[in-house]
Amino acid sequence: MKSEGFGKLTTGENTTLYTLSNEQLTITVSDFGGSMVNLWVKDKQGNPVDIVLGFDNVSGYEGDDGTYIGCNVGRNANRIHNAGFFLNGKKYELDKNEGTNNLHSGFNPYSKRMWKVNSVNDNSISLFLFSPHMDQGFPGNMDLTVTYLLEANGLKITYDASCDEDTVINITNHSYFNLNGQGSGTILKHKVKINADSFIPVDTNSIPTGDIGNVSGTPMDFTVSKAIGKDIESDFETLHNTGGYDHNWCINNYDGTLKEAVVAEGDMTGIKMMIFTDYPGIQMYVGNFLDDIKGKEGKVYNRREGICFEPQFYPDSVNHENFYSPVCKANQPFHKEIIYRFE
Ligand code: GAL
């Protein structure tokens, strides 16, 4: 384990970058946002390749204007229609930070706060954030811990939380992957398989219509591995609405246990990543909005040069009775896992 300065915030506060390694991979994590900054895995020749987009120092993360690169997104990831919901008969209002809707919980994201490093060693780091009652508009005082754990052939991210009131908890990792190496260009030739027979159609504001769509015979079908670019320009309404893949897939046979959600492969490096999660859904966002982002090591990130796989409850699920509920009961443990395994 190594720790080094990651730069000063505009407040003058110092930040730290932690580096953890095992034989297969190396990650770096910042105490600002608890964000994952680098993830090096080995290609076919055994050369380390950094497969996540990011910034060289904390200023990039502090100044980030809506990409959420490498972030932990909470208390609720994705969109909430009309920036509000009812819980136990009470109306809660959130920031309207995308038109009249709420995206990734609003103007004061967890990714722009300092997290407290609770423990760190050679293969794991745990960071803690306290989110007080009505923070971002959500009820209840919540303790949240994110743990990054290096395993023999991958990385496990765990979210543990508890809250003193019933609340919404739907926190995820928002890393942009490029399995050919960060800054190496388009991800359109990456091959992806998603273990999902259905998906969540959305309108022109990326808000779920409430339907659950069948992928069969549509460009949303990733049940058999295919290149991201293969059907991305197809004439299909919900795909037009979002300007490319930016949807939630419903992981088959969800029962609260870990399931393999995604297998993705970089066409240039042959790096293969499998994602497992115990969330019911996974958002695949192919970086449609990336535009001239000045990233690590002089690289510039443009449209579709990174791909997010965000395990989570379906978008706006707090407002849909036919979606799995993201409500966590008072004083009940919240525990979710995301595992990235490499070949
Ligand atoms: C994703 C979302 C996209 C976009 C992005 C941030 O999670 O699906 O629509 O908002 O975050 O730029």
Short description:
The chain is mostly beta strands and 343 residues long. The chain has two helices and 30 strands.
Label this structure with key terms.
globular, single chain, six-stranded antiparallel sheet, mainly beta, 2 helices, 343 residues
Structure description:
- The chain is globular.
- It is mostly beta strands and about 350 residues long.
- The model has no long low-confidence stretch (mean pLDDT about 100).
- It contains two helices and 30 strands.
- It has helices at about 60, 235-240; strands spanning about 1-10, 15-20, 25-30, 35-40, 50, 70-75, 80, 85, 90-95, 100-105, 115-120, 125-130, 140-150, 155-165, 165-170, 170-175, 175, 190-195, 200, 215, 225, 245-250, 260-265, 270-275, 280-285, 295, 300, 305-310, 325-330, 335-340.
- The strands form eight sheets. The protein has a nine-stranded antiparallel sheet, with no helix packed on it.
